[in-house]
UniProtKB/TrEMBL annotation:
InterPro entries: Phytyl_CoA_dOase-like. Its cofactor is Fe(2+). It comes from Bradyrhizobium iriomotense. This is Oxygenase. Gene3D superfamilies: q2cbj1_9rhob like domain. It comes from the Bacteria. PANTHER family: ECTOINE DIOXYGENASE, PHYTANOYL-COA DIOXYGENASE DOMAIN CONTAINING 1.
Length: 263
């Protein structure tokens, strides 16, 4: 049950950390399930995978979407008891439906994500405020050195900030924000508004920073269901195919970067 203080923080800052949401045995199972997904082959019609090239010329998985329908144990562990959805609906004061899920792996020597807002209506041409809350399930501990997130509190109330075609907030705007790191522990759930600006640095540590993201939209907004969203995703931002070129991998989105590439 969320406290009044937690609800107040959500409305004030645009994000909220729920510590110890999953107990140790459950978070260990989630970690194992995530590694299952990391090892899946590329699919051309089910899940979607993106990769990146490391500084020593290895290909590592960067991101996966649309995987819960193909991993029953992981789906049940995350969603069966309804606790995540209930928490979000208490923050929004409204019923929701899940639009999408994604995994960001952030293995050692992975890239970062430039300042942006997770406002899906921009790249996918959805009505404004269609998607409203994202639940990040911490698979690993996160801090700035292993690619943990930075947020700027309270800016979710200011609408869409100026950005480039890829969704990166204009540097002069982003540099004017007061950013704070939001470290978390494995098993925490971190919920944030899709208008809350955030970013992460490349992972230069020897520790992974894997996180699962469940994206919920207000029930009252209507709009596409998960199947429609995934069709749009493949059209706007295609995943890697069965045959990939290490020197020309598909990027997961317009905000991703490596410090040896367009930095």
């Amino acid at each position: 049950m969320l406290t009044d203080a937690q609800k107040a923080k959500w409305h004030r800052d645009g994000y909220l950390r729920l510590e110890g949401f999953f107990d140790a045995p459950t978070r260990n199972r989630i970690s194992d399930f995530v590694e299952d997904v990391a090892g899946w082959d590329v699919s051309t019609d089910k899940w979607m995978k993106w990769f990146e090239k490391t500084s020593d010329n290895r290909k590592i998985v960067s991101k996966v979407e649309n995987f819960l329908d193909y991993h029953d144990a992981l789906r049940q562990t995350l969603l069966a008891d309804g606790r995540i959805r209930t928490s979000i609906e208490k923050l929004l004061d409204e019923d929701t439906r899940m639009l999408k899920e994604l995994l960001i792996f952030k293995y050692p020597d992975s890239g970062g994500y430039r300042p942006h807002q997770d406002i899906y209506h921009v790249p996918h041409k959805l009505p404004e405020r269609m998607v409203h809350a994202i639940a990040a399930i911490a698979v690993d501990d996160a801090a700035p050195d292993n690619g943990g997130l930075f947020f700027t509190p309270g800016r979710h109330k200011e609408g869409v900030f100026p950005m480039d075609a890829g969704g990166v907030i204009n540097p002069d705007v982003a540099e004017s924000f007061e950013w704070e790191p939001v470290p978390w522990k494995a098993g925490d759930v971190f919920i944030f508004d899709d208008y809350a600006p955030h970013y992460s640095l490349p992972n230069k540590s020897d520790r992974s920073r894997r996180a699962l993201y469940l994206v919920f939209q207000r029930a009252s907004t209507g709009g596409p269901d998960r199947a429609e969203y995934n069709r749009m995703k493949r059209a706007y931002n295609p995943p890697e195919g069965k045959v990939s070129d290490l020197e020309d991998l598909k990027t997961p989105n317009g905000i991703f970067y490596r410090d040896d590439r367009n930095s």
